[in-house]
Amino acid sequence: MAEIEFNVLTGQCLNRRIDDIEVVRKEVLAWQEFRNNRNARVNWQFTAKAARIKLSRLYPALES
């Protein structure tokens, strides 16, 4: 889920060159407040079970 948010941040906020770190901080904070105020949600395209099958190489099964 963090990767999805970073991708959205990059596309909506950091899609240009910014030379000053303080400007980056202010932009990210404003973007974060906007996303939080909108109660942004992730639109999952498949179930957790399907994800475990499709992404099995990334998420190995745990032995119990």
Describe this structure in words.
The protein is an all-alpha fold. It has one domain. The protein contains 3 helices and no strands. It is elongated, with a radius of gyration of 17 Å. It starts with a helix and ends in a 10-residue tail after the last helix.
Describe the secondary-structure layout.
Elements lengths: L1 H11 L8 H17 L10 H7 L10
Give the overall shape, derived from the CA principal axes.
elongated
Radius of gyration: 17 Å
Q: Give start-end ranges of low-pLDDT stretches.
A: none
pLDDT average, as an integer? 82
Specify the structural class.
mainly alpha
Biggest sheet statistics = none
**Helix-strand string:** HHH
How much helical structure, as a percent, in the residues?
40-55%
- Number of continuous helical runs: 3
Distance between the termini: 26 Å
Strand content: under 5%
Count of distinct strands: 0
Count of the separate structural domains: 1
